[in-house]
Amino acid sequence: MSAPLDYGQMGRNRLPGIPDMSQPRPVALVTGAARRLGAAIARHLHAAGYDVSLHYRHSAEDMRVLIADLNAMRANSAIAWAADLAEYDRLPELVASTVGHFGRLDALVNNASAFSPTPLGTITPADWDAQFLINARAPIILAQAAAPHLKVARGAIVNLTDIYAERPLRDHLVYGMSKAALLAGTRALALELAPDVRVNAIAPGAILWPEEGKAEASKAALLARTPLGRIGTPEEIAEAVRWLLQGAGYTTGQVIRVDGGRMLDG
Fold it and tell me: How many domains are there within the chain?
């Protein structure tokens, strides 16, 4: 893992101690937080009073801008770390670096995701690993590393799954299976970590159009299958994350579908 943005290098082998609960603000670790949905979650949690530890992989300039904005609003309230979540050792290190910097951890938001088509007949082991390592393994290993600190804080985990974890998307078999594994992992973690840590998932529908573009006919067809007749906003997902972390004290092991009613369309 590289040096955190805007801060000095931390010792790579530094191990976390018991969180310092004298730190007055709760701390959230958010993966895949440099852009789009992840950045919206980071900004929303920061506005809700969290200090934030933000993971990114490639989007260094986007993350630099985000960190500068957040720290301008509240000094020393945000830090970022570059890491490839497919590398196993980076996962506990990310938690250790967060706790080493802020002294505590109250929330883990597993937002980072790998998405690519895998038509049946073309699937390779590399395709499998590329999506399962990020979408299924990384969130569970991060949760495992974070669990001792979250238990002290009586914190919570939110995993970003997908409506395609329950309703397959043609030509995306591996992606759908990886998100279904994360959904199963969410429920298993909720049992394993109760009663101290709550674990829930959010399954977004259409929130942002793909950056590479989407045909207008395809957009219209998707909206026609969405009872609310529109795509969602990143802020609506971010508020659902905040509610599950802060307001849903009697909710665990659940998946909240923020999809405009897409799952109602048979």
Answer: 1
**The one catalytic residue among 50, 56, 164, 175:** 175
Decide: 166 and 172 in contact? Cβ < 8 Å: no
Q: What is the CATH number of the domain that holds 163?
A: 3.40.50.720
Q: Do the domain assignments include residue 17?
A: no
The parent domain of residue 186 ranges over: 27-257
Six token digits for residue 146: 């974070």
* Residue 152 Cα distances to 100, 187, 212, 233, angstroms: 15, 21, 43, 33
How does pLDDT run across 133-170, given as a tens digit for each residue? Answer: 999 999 999 999 999 999 999 999 999 999 999 998 89
Q: What is the pLDDT of residues 78-129, one digit of tens each?
A: 999 999 999 999 999 999 999 999 999 999 999 999 999 999 999 999 999 9
Residue 195: cis peptide before it, omega within 30 degrees of 0: yes
Residue 175 annotated as catalytic: yes
16 falls within a domain: no
Whether the predicted pLDDT of 17 surpasses 90: no
Residue 2 within a domain: no
